[in-house]
Amino acid sequence: MATTLLAIKTPQLIGICCGVAVFLSTIITVAVLFVKGGSVDRLRAEANGDKPAPPRPKLVDELLAAARRLKSKPELGTSTVVARTKKGEAPRRVVVRRADADDGPTTERLDVVDASLEPPKKVGRLELVDHRPRDLAIRIDKLSSTHAALALFATVDALVQRGYRRIEWRVLDAKDAALAEATGFSLEGVLRKYCIEDGCSRDARLYSVLNTEWRERRPAVAARLDIVDAQLDAAWTLKDCVVPAPRKKNT
Q: Does residue 53 fall inside a structural domain?
């Protein structure tokens, strides 16, 4: 055996050493990936008869940046939608913007304005409450407007552009439930004995829409409401949260 090894020429010996090194590094890499990827934990859980927990997906950098950028106040900005009306009438222009009143660090009161009238007229209101900046989540509350569907579309569209992932709405009446479903919201469940109103116990239906769902449903909702244009005038949007990579200085 020793004589055979001495008979190997130097180039061949180098090749054998390189092959062994590659083989060992591959084994080590596979072992590390096996452990870091959670395969060991899954096998151990299956051996114990337990169901392993599914891996949690990581958020994209843009959403994490938006979460760091958001302040306690939602700061919706001004959202405008334009919808067709009856033949021969001017298009309906509805604006949702911040009201003059200040309701604290986590609530934003908004006015719904019919800008197609001269002069523009306030036709409703709503609030953004339960603001959770780190989770990119918020809840719509106290929506009351003669153009509720357009106001709801303008609000959700603006919030998604701002980087929000989850938008909730808790409704008590069947009319609002139908409005929620017509504007892309999904029913998540019923909050039993949610409140007492006029001496009676009331249940609330919990609706929500996610940013991924809104991007898919938006064209159909816009067509259903005859919306031809939607604009957001905000201090910042999700794109502004992405910090560009620093440029390398010439040396």
A: no
